[in-house]
Amino acid sequence: MRTPLLAAALLAFAAPAGAEPAPRVAAVQQADAALRAAIASDARPEADRARDQYRHPYESLTFWGLAPGMTVVEIQPGQAGWWSNILQPYLAQSEGTYVAANNGQQLSGVADGSADMVLVARAFHNWHRGGQTDALMGQFARVLKPGGVLAVEQHRAPEGSDPDQTAPTGYVSEAYVIAAAERAGLVLDGRSEINANARDDRDHPFGVWTLPPVRRSEQNGRSLTAEERAQFDAVGESDRMTLRFRKPA
């Protein structure tokens, strides 16, 4: 099934009946096929592909507006590189550029206004605890081109919750992220329920790390029973916000 974003693009550039596809339609179709191929590739670790049911990579990346030839900066991808295992081959085949900033301060080496997209996945709770959120958001705004996108995937706390209370459990609210982006001069451009999970009530003995993929079962003398472990596994991965911010042109 095509996403609404892709369907709209195809409709906008559709050729008259019986005519050859317009070049732009062909380009959209080619980009769509290239992204699907990168996601389905056997080069991705099996464990990565098993998580697609929870992280919806195709839908998320098309919502954020990924396109061939972009310069994409991923913040703290870590050693496993779940997103980078998709982004690197996809961008390489279209002469795009992938930049991994495993420490946010490495952005000092990224030129002002050079990135089409900055991707942040599951990091705001850690930044809040370290008092880093505003400084890092300012850096993201600096490296983005005018019109560039900040793409966010983040464990979601209930609206109105106190980040001092929720961040240690791995969650922050959408309002927290939106306010931080706005302070950096970025504008909310879209929000999606692609990665929502109504089964996640956020009431877990070891925070979000109780759930897959971490599946923590013991901490500070507390151990889950086999029945509890099965219950948390049945929740799946966390309820997550999926947000798109844009740097004003």
From TrEMBL:
<dbReference type="InterPro" id="IPR013216">
    <property type="entry name" value="Methyltransf_11"/>
</dbReference>
<keyword id="KW-0732">Signal</keyword>
<dbReference type="InterPro" id="IPR016980">
    <property type="entry name" value="S-AdoMet-dep_MeTrfase_Alr7345"/>
</dbReference>
<dbReference type="GO" id="GO:0032259">
    <property type="term" value="P:methylation"/>
</dbReference>
<dbReference type="GO" id="GO:0008168">
    <property type="term" value="F:methyltransferase activity"/>
</dbReference>
<dbReference type="InterPro" id="IPR029063">
    <property type="entry name" value="SAM-dependent_MTases_sf"/>
</dbReference>
<keyword id="KW-0489">Methyltransferase</keyword>
<feature type="domain" description="Methyltransferase type 11">
    <location>
        <begin position="100"/>
        <end position="151"/>
    </location>
</feature>
<protein>
    <submittedName>
        <fullName>Class I SAM-dependent methyltransferase</fullName>
    </submittedName>
</protein>
<keyword id="KW-0808">Transferase</keyword>
<feature type="signal peptide">
    <location>
        <begin position="1"/>
        <end position="19"/>
    </location>
</feature>
<dbReference type="Pfam" id="PF08241">
    <property type="entry name" value="Methyltransf_11"/>
</dbReference>
